[in-house]
Every structure is written in C-alpha cells, then in structure tokens.
Design goal:
homohexamer, two-stranded parallel ribbon, EC 5.3.2.- (chains A, B, C, D, E, F), about 30% helix, isomerase (chains A, B, C, D, E, F), Macrophage Migration Inhibitory Factor, alpha+beta
C-alpha cells in the first residue's frame, strides 16, 4: 500500500519512467506519510488508438 | 470525469474502436448529464490466453 | 467480456445508473458486435475529495 | 491523460489527499512532460479488512 | 507483484474475505511460483445498483 | 461477478496462466460461495520497466 496505477500514452523513454517512479513515490511518501517500500506503481502505456477523449479517438483529434 | 476503462478481447479494428468511443461517450452524456469533453475512455485489449472464465482460459474453451 | 469500469463523481440517481448501464451496453454491442450478455459494467462513485484534476482536489476547484 | 488510480488504506485527512494530488501531479508533469491539466487522479480508500498482503487480511497482521 | 484487484457484490463476511485472501494467495503462489509476501489483494465491494450485466442493473434482474 | 484483475510481471508460460485461472477460480468459489461461471479473470503482464517498487524501476533493483 498504496498501489498506484498510471495509464498514459506510449512514447516515454525508460529514463522518463524511472523519473516518474522516483518522483511519484516521493510525492506519496511526503503527503500521506508512508515508507517508500510500501509504494507499488504500475505503468500502463497505450496507443492513441486506444484512448477516447470527448467522443473521439485521440488518434483522430 | 467520468473515467471509463474497457477491457476486451483483441481483434477489433480501429474503426470499431472509433465507433466504441463515439457511442459510449454519447451513452454516458445522455444518461448522467455530463459534457462529452469530460469523458475519458481507456481501451485495453487482451489475448484469449489472458482471459479466464469459469475456471478456464478463454483460449481453451 | 467486455468488462467496463466507470469511475465517476457521486450524486447520480439509481435511474441514471440504470440508464447508464442500458445505454453503454447498447453502445458496446453495436460497435464491437458482442452480445449484451457478455457485457459487465462496474460503476464506482467517488466524492469530490477523492478526485484530483490539474493538481487540485475537485472539491477545491 | 495520464490517468492515475491510487488505492490506499483509509484514514488520511482531506489535507493529506489535497497534498497527495498536488505533489503527485507535479511529479508526473516534471517527469513525463505533460501539462497539469492533463492529469486526473482517482483516490480510493479501503479498510484493513479489504486488503490482503502475504496471504492475510491486513486487519489480522 | 502480483497485484490482484477483486470487485464483487457486497454482503460477504470478514471471515469470507479472510478465506478469500488466504486461498487466492495460495492459488497464485502455487501457479506462478512467487512468494506469498509478493502478493497484494485489493477487495472492492459494490451494491447491486452499481453492477450492470446484460444491459440491466443487477438490482433489477 | 466477481471480476478479478491480476497485474504481474511478464514471463509466465501459457500453462502457468492456465493453472492460475483454474486455481484462483477454485479459491474464489470456495471462499465466497459463488459458481465458477460467475468468475472472470483478466491477466495483465508488464515488463520490469513498467513496475515501480520502493521508488525504483524493478528493472533497476
């Protein structure tokens, strides 16, 4: 605990995901006072053809 | 808001996903009175070897 | 299959959720050609103090 | 996009959730270069009787 | 890892959830060879007015 | 119902997933008294570069 699921568009580098995990874990430990070891982060990437916003595929907007 | 996550078997075309996003967004805006711009839809596709129903892999049934 | 998870702000009536299930199921069956019996919809409601947008709690914006 | 779902034990204050949203949004915008307005965070709280770790209810450990 | 999310209708007892965590953890450790300490299970309960099946609220069927 | 989502590291065989579905379904039916036909299991696999634990990518630890 806490378990974090992040769904985002594909295309980020491994370094960006590394930074994402580091900074999001810090943000959580600082705000809800839990140890970093308690934080699990799942990152899921999707294509623009798997994301809908305002009724349209993101690939179409 | 609302955030919609749709997990379904792989194999649909981009046009089907396009239609899915359009129609599901309409369905939501009409039923819970929110603007289309508020609706985000995440579509995740899986293989039949990643879906279990009634104790079996869908690939086996 | 498909499994649909809808996270949205609390406050809708049972009738609105009834309509939401009906219309979203129709939208899915029409767009990805699956039977209505295959569609499961989970609706989760949250307070404005459990939703963050643009860095703020929705309750604060 | 990105959509963040945080599942954690109940018991945090509104201020902690406010801080959580602020800091997690900053962490994401800094690491994957997206605007804060693109970030949606859903916070779900659960009891210790709804969390299992290492085969036990958290309420029992 | 693995992270398990179980969404089910409300109404089970704490003992049933205790048994659920115990048995699901055993099932996972035996089938994918991971230690029990690696398994986290989140249990979410919902009412029949928050579950849609075959186009209807479960409360209506 | 129940709907089970299992997120785990990639690398398991189809047989392991087959066994996972069989055993997790049995575990659920035995503990919360529901028929096997009611249980749906979604298995999602991820790389070590998409999993964060204790502030680090699993690929780095």
């Amino acid at each position: 605990m806490p378990i974090v699921q992040i769904d985002m568009l594909e295309g980020r580098t491994v370094d960006q995901r590394r930074e994402l995990v580091k900074k999001v874990t810090e943000a959580i430990t600082e705000s809800v006072s839990c140890p970093a070891s308690a934080v699990t982060i799942i990152i899921r990437e999707m294509t623009k053809e798997h994301l809908g916003q305002a009724g349209k595929l993101r690939a179409d907007s």
